[in-house]
Amino acid sequence: MNFNANSGPKQPFGRKIKRVSDVNAMGYNPYTQPQPFPNGQDAAQPQPAFNPQHQPAQEFNQSYTQPNNVPYNNFDTNQYANVPGIGVFAQPMVQNMAMQYTQQLANTGTTMVKKEIERFVPVNRLKYYFAVDTKYVLTKLGLLFFPFTHADWSVKYEQDGPVQPRFEINAPDLYIPTMAYVTYVLVAGLVLGMQQRFSPEQIGIQSSSALAWCLIELGVYNATLYISNIQTSLRTLDLLAYSGYKFVGLIVSILLSIVGGSTAYFCMLGYFSLALAFFLVRSLRAQVLPEISQQEAYYGDNVPSSGNKRRLYFLLFVAAAQPVLSWWLSYHLIRYTPSVTL
Amino acid sequence: MAFTLWNLFEASLLCLNAICILNEERFLVKIGWSAKRAPTGFGENPTAKAQILNLIHSIRTVARIPLILLNIVTILLKLLLG
Predict the structure, then answer these.
(1) In this structure, is residue B2 part of a structural domain?
(2) What own/partner pairs with CB < 8 Å and gap ≥ 24 does B8-11 have?
(3) Cα B50 to Cα B43: distance, rounded to the nearest angstrom
(4) A342 compared with A274, residue with greater pLDDT
(5) What pLDDT is stored for residue A342 in this prediction?
(6) I need a labelling partner for A79 at 20 to 30 A (CA). Which of A32, A166, A275, A322 fits?
(7) What does the alpha-carbon distance between residue A129 and residue A126 come to, in Å, rounded to a whole number?
(8) Residues A89 and A215 in one domain
(9) So what family is this one in (chain A) (predicted)?
(10) CB proximity list for B37: less than 8 A, separation 6 or greater
């Protein structure tokens, strides 16, 4: 079965089917064709204020049970037609206007909701972190496991920010950490099942626990950056991305522990910790440690010389926290696997 | 190792409560942990202790009202769900 959303019947040669996301851009609204409501009111509208008291419930029932079967002309014989004021909704022009008015209301509602959400969750910045493609993901995974031969670690910048991860291999992304986190939860379930310790609640417990530790780690990094007064261009989402890379090694270690027991687990964990520490120090060095350009050195101490030590310590702290956290997140999963004598 | 998001939420709520309880005038000034910026240095390089005290002061100012709501919600949840 083909789950690809774009593959349907083959398109005629030379013609691209336009995808329209906004019905208003089409020039007409397919939904304002006059619907044959039995009592001449829009079913989606709240009942108008001048309705008789006992009738709203019945009208709702009527409009839901007879959606399209009653032809348009029948409402003249409707018993509600002699109620003053309701007849105005029967005319198609008024229906059109009501529909457009509610559409505008809905549009302003969605823009307001989006603006409120933008205050809490930076959606545009999030989109930057997910702008990846296959080549980037594969290269980045290879880099995570073997960063020793990579030469150039600098990140190219555009006018307003770093280049998208799609075009710049050294930029952090959130796609790999998210996928690695989900895979970690699944692998944890798999390993627990192999040890007869699995139940569906375990999925929730494992995922919630890993998420809680990620949040604690982020909180500690932010507090450390604030307290030791380190000026850096690292955003919180960058820190989240860099601390999410450890899940990749985590799942490989856990999977290897199935085959090789604790020995293989610790070997893989040790190697990946080394590689990740190397990767992190090299990647973050450009962003956390200051780059002394020629002009700044001339124009006085713009460069805090005492801050260098603090920045270095912060880098080493981040790099050292990764193996500790990886061990803490996975040790309870491999405790019961028998180690195979090599 | 069932350390879930709910436990994290409870622990952080307790910690924030502890921070917000400390009264500035009656207690912190006596120890010398007041958050009023000492006139030494124009803040080019505020010391770590000053940053921590600043953090505590701002947490107290910002989080007081939401903490009241969070505490009420948590108490109700604990009463109902045990």
Answers:
(1) no
(2) B8/A212, B8/A215, B8/A216, B10/B74
(3) 10
(4) A274
(5) 44
(6) A32
(7) 5
(8) no
(9) Belongs to the YIF1 family.
(10) B43, B46, B50, B54
What is the end-to-end Cα distance of chain A in Å, rounded? Answer: 43
- For residue B8, list chain A residues with Cβ-Cβ distance below 8 A: 212, 215-216
Among A69, A292, A208, A129, which Cα is nearest to B7's?
Answer: A208
State the best of A205, A229, A301 to mutate against chain B, taking most chain B CBs within 10 Å.
A229
Please tell me whether residues A112 and A172 are part of one structural domain: no
Residue B80 located in a structural domain = yes
Model confidence pLDDT, tens digit, residues A242-275: 999 999 999 999 999 988 888 899 999 999 999 9
Q: What is the total count of domains within chain B?
A: 1
Q: Do A212 and B48 touch (CB under 8 A)?
A: no
Domain presence at residue A8 = no
In a domain, A25, yes or no: no
As a whole number of Å, the end-to-end CA separation of chain B is 20
Chain A residues within an 8 Å CB radius of B46:
229
A202 and A88 part of one domain: no
Q: Which of A91, A121, A151 marks a domain boundary?
A: A121
Which chain B residues are Cβ-neighbours of A209 within 8 angstroms?
1-4
Contact status, residue A286 vs residue A154, Cβ threshold 8 Å: yes
B51–A205 C-beta distance less than 8 A:
no
Query: In the structure encoding, which two tokens stand for residue B42, read together?
Result: 């124009």
B51 contacts on A by Cβ (under 8 Å)? 226-229
| Range B38-64 average pLDDT | 75
Does some domain include residue B74? yes
* Residue A116 sits in the same domain as residue A153: no
The model's confidence at residue A236, banded by pLDDT at 50, 70 and 90, is confident
CB nearest to B45's CB, from A205, A213, A304: A304
Nearest Cβ partner for A211 among B1, B5, B48: B5
Looking at the structure of chain A, the number of domains it has is: 2
Tell me, yes or no, whether A268 and A139 share the same domain.
yes
Segments forming the whole domain that contains residue A186: 124-333
Q: Do A192 and A90 share a domain, yes or no?
A: no
Are both A183 and A197 inside the same structural domain? yes
Structural domain including B57 reads: 13-32+48-82
State the CB neighbour count (10 A cutoff) for residue A309. Answer: 10
Which residues face A162 on adjacent strands? A157
